[in-house]
Amino acid sequence: MNTQTLTLHITGMHCPACVLLTESEAQELPYITRAHSDLKHHTINLEGDLADKLPEEVALALTEKLHSHGYTVSVERQTHQKNWADFKVAVPVALAFITGFVLLQKLGIVNLVPGGSVTYGTAFVLGIVASLSTCMAVVGGLVLSMSATFAKEGDRVRPQALFHIGRLISFLVLGGVIGAVGSAFALSGAASFILSLLIAVVMLVLGINLLGIFHWSKRLQPAMPRFLAKHAYGVSKLNHTLTPFVVGVATFFLPCGFTQAMQIYALSTGSFAAGALTMGAFALGTLPVLALVSFSSFSIQKKSYGGIFFKTAGLVVILFALYNLMNALVVAGIIQPLFSL
Known about the structure:
Order of helices and strands: EHEEHEHHHHHHHHHH
Shape: globular
Radius of gyration: 21 Å
């Protein structure tokens, strides 16, 4: 076979998960032997038997595979629309949400954000945000891919149930393992403070990225080692009775910045129970949307209000990050509390 190369532009890439998903889907095309996506330049480099294929034809075929995940492939670079007008709605909605969130904590109804820590309520809310963001596109892609495989055999409910059970169990158990590992290191006060800062910085980067106005933030997001994430995604291509359960377990290792922020916090808890409950709360937050994805091609970024949602979610995550950063500084005695925590 005479191998040719082609570079196309992708609209909709936000994070390392997007790189993994677009590459995997591109390699499903019969005439593509290798694909490499570039998050910095929003491109995908293709290799394969492309001699009798027009670039526009390849772009259209790839768009058809990726459109359900919120991506569009084109021959020419598309102009990035920042849509500053979305902030007119996003800012008041985000402020109202955070105000209500803090009021619940002040009233003692739910202790959501106590000083210096990311609690189960925070982890649950971040799970909801993550499940609606394109950072979870790769998990949605796993679910849709797996659904299509088993739907051909007339089996829809059982695989989905096994997937979600496997995901919840893995986040509980592996979250606990991470917490237990943290206890073995007996983190000092300085180490705990550094981890708290790291969590706040990661959340801040994730929030800025969700705003969709700063391209540089995409390159700062944490990611699992590429080989590990790729193997985790490859599990979905298997067709076995227990495959959905194994795929659910594998999602713990996929490149989602939100997941990794929670994993860092689970490590800092130094407790199996706290680590397990933190990751379990996060997984529960992702459950409603992922369950919906299981039976549809739901994707909020394709909706007309997608820009407003992402900017609102980004502002909420940024405010969480700043709040936790402030609390960490207060606990360390670096600053005086600005509020009664």
